[in-house]
Structure formats: C-alpha cells, structure tokens
Amino acid sequence: MNFDSSPIAAIATAAGRGGIGVVRISGKNIAPVMQALCGTSSLKPRYATYLPFLNADGTAIDQGIAIFFKAPHSYTGEDVLELQGHGGPVVMQMLLSRCLEAGKDIGLRVAQPGEFTHRAFLNDKLDLAQAEAVADLIEASTEAAAKSASASLSGVFSKTIHELVDKVIHLRMLVEATLDFPEEEIDFLEKSDARGQLERIRAALDEVFAQASQGALLREGLNVVLAGQPNVGKSSLLNALAGSDVAIVTPIAGTTRDKVTETIQMEGIPLHIIDTAGIRDAGDEVERIGIERTWGEVYKADVILHLLDASRGPTREDEEIVSRLPDSVPVLRVWNKIDLSGHRPAVDRMPDATHVYLSATDRRGIDLLRTELLRVAGWQQTGESRFLARERHLLALKAARDHLEMAAEHVARNNRTSDHALDLFAEELRIAQERLNSITGEFTPDDLLGVIFSRFCIGK
Ligand code: GDP
C-alpha cells in the first residue's frame, strides 16, 4: 500500500441512503477546499455551521453542516473538514467530486481504506491496538464484541500492555546495570529479587493472555460444523441455540457465497455454522470447487455437531457421515428429539465423543449443549472486562511468554549466575519487550501496518 502525505478525502458514511452522509477531508493546507465548498476559508474550529455546499458555478449541491477540526485536535491529527449533507449516494458522490476538483492544486486525492485511521496512528492519536479496535468496533457482530472493542479503543488493552512493558523495562534496567559492573560480582538475583520480579511479570502476562483469548473468541467466534441427515432437526437446533434473540445471519467477511455458512450468536459469541447438508452433491465444476472449499472449512472447524435422531437411533447414513468427518476436530454427538424417545436431558462423556441428549422443539437440554460448546471453545464465564483481541495480539503475547520462560530458564539453573547467563537473560527480556511493543505498534514493520490498515473500510 502506498501511503503518502497528500490531503485525502472520502465519503465516511456507509454506502446507501440515510438521513445524513459525511464527506471527510484531512490534510495540511485544506483551506482552498473549505473556501470552494463552504464559501469561507476560516470556519471556526469545532463549531457546526449550517451553509450551502457550493458547486463550481456557485449553485448549491446541498445544504448541510460543516465542521472544521484544526490540527492536532482531530481524528487524524491533521486539519480535518467534515461536510455533513443529506445521505444519498448521488449527493455524496457529487460532494466528493467537487472536493477533489477544488483540491486539485493541493494534491487532494481519494483516501485508501483505513487511511484516516492510519494517519491517526502515525500522529500518535491512537496506538495500533486502538486503531485495530476501531475496525473491530465497526465490524462487531455481537453486542459483547462491540463492548470489548470499545474497551480496547478507549485504551484499556493498550494500558495493560504498557504496564507489562514497564515491568519488563524495570527488570531489564537492573540486569543491564549488573552487566555493566561485572567486577562487583554481586549476587544480582538475590539482591534484586529478579526471579520474583520475573515470576510476577509472567503471572501478569498469563492473566492478560487469558483475557485476550476470550476477547479473540468474541471477535473471531467459533467455527461449528453441523452434520446430520435431513429432518433430524438441524434448523430447529440452530433456532433453539440462538435463543430468543433473533438469529443473526451474516456471511463471514471475506467468504464467498459457495461456503454454506451462517452466523448465529450464543452468549455474545458468534457461532459460524457450516452446514454439511448443503455440501453433499456437486452438480457442476463451480459447485465442486465450492464444495472442496467448504470441506477445507470443515477441517479447520473448532467443533463438529453431529446431530442424530434419538427416537430412531443411529442409521447407516449416520455412520457414513461420521466416516467423512475429520478426526482432528472434536465432535459433540447430539441426540435430538428426546421428547419422542423418552431420554432425559443429559451429557454423557464417552471415549469416542461427548454425547448430549436434548430436544430442539421443547428446548430441554439446550443449556447442556450451550455449556458444552462454551467448554470446547475455552470460554470462561467471568464477569471481568475483556479486550477484543486479535490473533496477531495472541501470537505476540505467546511469543513474549515464551521468551520470558526462556529468561527464567537462564536464571533457574543455580542460585548464582554466570555473566553469560545474565547476558542471555537480558537478551530474552529484550525480545519479550519487543514482542509486547508490537501489539501497540512500537516496532511494527511497515508492511504489517499496510496489511492491518488495508482491511479497513474506505472513509475510516
Ligand atoms: P433439518 O432438516 O435437519 O433442518 O430439520 P428441521 O429442523 O427442519 O426439523 C425436521 C422436523 O423435525 C420438523 O418437523 C421439526 O419440527 C421436527 N423436530 C425438530 N426437532 C425436534 C424435537 O426435538 N422433537 C420433535 N418431536 N420434533 C422435532
């Protein structure tokens, strides 16, 4: 992605029709655009002014509110002009075109996806974890995910990471100081309680990791394969799992239609349901490719729900289904229609799989299945705040944890350490700190930044 520093403009509101639509301009020296569109180049910062947005010939494109945010007090940290007009696609496009035309001499161009937020990051308005939270808040598919994203955006996650980093820095300072005075030959470990400090850092990091994993689950959700013969009650079960909430049906971002996927939510966690019923017989080539892809998803799933009819017992078709499912994915064998079979709602942990007995129509046993699914997902029902973390953050936390563990090994062998062990100890701490810093964006390579921001929507 090629980011330069020329002024940028974009329609910031969603495509489509709405009461209000916003065109946003950010950059240095945007006064000519303000003059052309608003008839003045000196709007009072942070004041809403109702005025006509002007065309080149002086006629009005629309009437609306203009707000000027003077640098650095704006979203991007640059001068920002917001034009709030009526939210129709044509009027928004006309406003944007007019801005680009008026801003030709100052090099105004259309913003790339995520470019406003990227600038906010470069100008220290947000750190990287907060910038990612902006995208996550916009994309949140459940209320719980939105709440956690909002917590991350307000800096709760970043603050926790900074606290960890500060502790690592403190310990590093002690070690480095000792390295600088080898002749003193002090027993550094004992004097400074370095081991104790390291253990406390590791415990704090484990805690953050646990919370971040929960947050990642809220963001990513759980991939659930639903297998079972026609009429065993798959749709009824999905409705029962989704509970009284209206089941959200959204395609997963980035997936194509050929994957048979819908998303419901359970306890705020998105469950991405891959229905194997839809992937049995291939008609043509295109369909065959789609089916192959879907099987790929099946292999990557977190859990398989194999639904059977308790009133009928297993059939040969069920065995065939089982034989086609990957061994690597945990299976919950769900016996539905216990109202007909006379079973009681129950969970039975058997060597081959966990069996759950329930009825989708009278909803008995559904809670047992919910609990089992949450258990498989590693969800802990704590009332604590969660950060909406990404896979990237988990990997960085894991790497930091590994390096702290190696650091601990260097000083664990005996009570006294050689200078060499201290050197290695210091080095592991340094790398651990770097990994933690990558979460908030200090030491993040440009190409990674490009990837992160390119996944934003345009105008953000
Ligand atoms: P699918 O084809 O697997 O999606 O199955 P459906 O959810 O459409 O259900 C097939 C039929 O079984 C419908 O008539 C449902 O009302 C019925 N059914 C589903 N679950 C239960 C259950 O727990 N008990 C009873 N008695 N009928 C059920």
Defining traits:
single chain, 460 residues, 46% helix, flat, 16 helices, 2 domains, 13 strands, alpha/beta, Gyrase A, domain 2, 6-stranded mixed β-sheet, binds guanosine-5'-diphosphate, Rossmann fold
Could you walk me through the main structural features you see in this protein, from its secondary elements to its overall organization?
The protein is an alpha/beta fold and 460 residues long. It has two domains: 8-125, Gyrase A, domain 2, CATH 3.30.1360; 126-460, Rossmann fold. It is 46% helix and 18% strand. It contains 16 helices and 13 strands. It has a seven-stranded mixed β-sheet, with helices on both faces. The protein has a six-stranded mixed β-sheet with strand order 3-4-5-2-1-6, covered by helices on one side. A hairpin with a 5-residue loop joins strand 3 and strand 4 (60-69). Helix 6 (156-180) runs antiparallel to helix 15 and helix 14 (391-412) packs antiparallel against helix 15. The two termini are 16 Å apart. 41% of the residues are buried. Bound molecules: guanosine-5'-diphosphate. Guanosine-5'-diphosphate binds at residues 228, 230-236, 336-337, 339-340, 359-361.
β-strand amount: 15-25%
**Structure ligands:** guanosine-5'-diphosphate
Q: From the helix content, strand content and strand pairing, which structural class follows? A: alpha/beta
Low-pLDDT residue intervals, each spanning 5 or more residues: 245-259
Q: Which CATH class of the largest domain applies here?
A: Alpha Beta
- Supply the number of helical segments: 16
Secondary-structure arrangement, i.e. CATH architecture of the largest domain: 3-Layer(aba) Sandwich
CATH superfamily descriptor of the largest domain: P-loop containing nucleotide triphosphate hydrolases
Could you give the order of the helices and strands? EEHEEEHEHHHHHHEHEEHEHEHEEHHHH
Give the overall shape, derived from the CA principal axes: flat
Radius of gyration of CA atoms, rounded to a whole number: 28 Å
- CA-to-CA gap between the ends? 16 Å
Count of domains = 2
Please state how the strands of the largest beta sheet are arranged side by side: 8-9-7-10-11-13-12
User: The biggest beta sheet, please?
Assistant: 7 strands, mixed
Mean pLDDT across all residues, rounded? 84
Can you give the helix content as a percent range? Answer: 40-55%
Question: Remind me, CATH topology of the largest domain?
Answer: Rossmann fold
How many strand segments? 13
